[in-house]
Amino acid sequence: DIQMTQSPSTLSASVGDRVTITCRASQNINSWLAWYQQKPGKAPNLLISKVSGLESGVPSRFSGSGSGTEFTLTISNLQPDDFASYYCQQYKSYPWTFGQGTKVE
Amino acid sequence: QLQLQQWGAGLLKPSETLSLTCAVYSGSFSDYYWSWIRQPPGKGLEWVGEINHVGSTYYNASLKSRLTISVDTSKSQFSLKLNSVTAADTAVYYCARTRVVRTFDSWGQGTLVTVSS
Lengths: 105, 117
Prior knowledge:
heterodimer, A: mainly beta, four-stranded antiparallel sheet, globular, B: mainly beta, seven-stranded mixed sheet, 11 strands
């Protein structure tokens, strides 16, 4: 299985900050990387697919980059609605796997 | 407006069978795969398995021996059965629409399944 490792596990930030979350894959996943946002008690919401492709309705302050084994999610100008947990997911090969999550608090 | 609505028993005893169903309202059922994903309390996400409209399945190997995912295309529903559950199967279970490229773009509301004697 492809292991996905996120860092940090928890990130303390303030409104207006620029925050960066890193996701590393245990092997090359090319650009088959997605990011999800999850708020407490809610299902995850797909933010970004194929490393940097923003889903419809996702604010442009979210951006993704990387390739191969190292990827980042950046939130510029953090807003109150962005305090949540974020997960990366690889879809290069079965089983589809997620990072352990990063909580932005 | 696409909606995934799921239901099933929320409290099970060890060795019982977990059974959940997800109904898809609106949108195409045949153009996507359909997945189950679970999340133990306070932990991360684990993909359980997927099915398409003709019943082709792929399961997470860690659960394969206990897992059955089935589909009823006439009702736009798919179901999960996990037998011989233990406390380790306690989690919120989500159903999710799965694109061909295998991202999950629409989710059910989640069902907390607790396994306890």
